């Protein structure tokens, strides 16, 4: 929240409803439909950053996604991904959205922007654990048995995140 001096410190992270955010899945692309209001008379830029490796910093090359917000836009679709196969899975990671009229002001994850808004969210990236039998048991492809990784439910000593059922 970047409240202006003299204003109430109000949590205004309301651009996205967390209950309606689609899943962030390893190796896939997620599209966020984000409500915006651009009545400025010029095009705006929306930039999304996601901290895939949970190092507390947004990589300006590998963790940044950009979309323009046309004049009079009431929503934009921001594609995030494909999510790297080595992203942190099952833990909260930071998602930052920056909207401004001056593209230079939002092309870095931090710092002052003279227009627009910044919103921060915590999201989780999920991975799948597939069966590890030979493919004759249908352990690869769309019909492969798989489950979302969770720290609360395991079978055996551990779970392993995979991109496909690999014996």
Fold blueprint:
Elements: E1 24-25, E2 30-35, E3 44-50, E4 64-69, E5 75-80, E6 92-100, H1 103-106, E7 117-126, E8 128-130, E9 146-148
Parallel strand pairs: 1-7
Antiparallel strand pairs: 2-5, 3-4, 3-6, 6-7, 8-9
Tell me about this structure.
Helices cover 2% and strands 31% of the residues. The protein is built from one helix and nine strands. The strands form three sheets. The chain has a five-stranded mixed beta sheet with strand order 1-7-6-3-4. Strands 2-5 form a two-stranded antiparallel ribbon. Strands 8-9 form a two-stranded antiparallel ribbon. The longest helix is centred in the middle third of the chain and has 4 residues, at 103-106.
Low-confidence stretches: 1-7
Order of helices and strands: EEEEEEHEEE
Distance between the termini: 47 Å
The whole-angstrom Rg is 19 Å
Percent of sequence in beta strands = 25-35%
- Order of strands, main sheet, comes to 1-7-6-3-4
Number of helices: 1
The largest pleated sheet is described as: 5 strands, mixed
Number of strands: 9
Query: Please, what is the average pLDDT?
Result: 84
What helical percentage do the residues reach?
under 10%
* Structural class estimated from helices and strands: mainly beta
- Described by the principal axes of the CA atoms, the overall outline is elongated
């Amino acid at each position: 929240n970047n409240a202006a001096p003299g204003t109430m410190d109000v949590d205004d992270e309301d651009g996205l409803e967390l209950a309606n955010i689609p899943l962030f899945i390893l190796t896939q692309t997620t599209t966020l439909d984000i409500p915006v209001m651009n009545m400025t008379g010029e095009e705006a830029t929306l930039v999304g950053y996601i901290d895939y490796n949970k190092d507390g910093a947004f990589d300006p090359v590998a963790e940044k996604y950009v979309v323009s917000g046309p004049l009079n836009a009431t929503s934009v679709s921001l594609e995030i991904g494909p999510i790297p196969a080595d992203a942190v899975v099952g833990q909260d990671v930071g998602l930052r959205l920056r909207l401004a009229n001056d593209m230079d002001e939002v092309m870095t994850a931090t710092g002052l922007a003279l227009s627009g808004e910044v919103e921060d969210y915590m999201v989780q990236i999920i991975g799948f654990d597939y069966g590890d039998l030979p493919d004759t048991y249908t352990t690869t492809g769309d019909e492969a048995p798989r489950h979302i990784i969770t720290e609360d439910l395991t079978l055996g000593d551990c779970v392993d995140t995979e991109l496909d059922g690999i014996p």
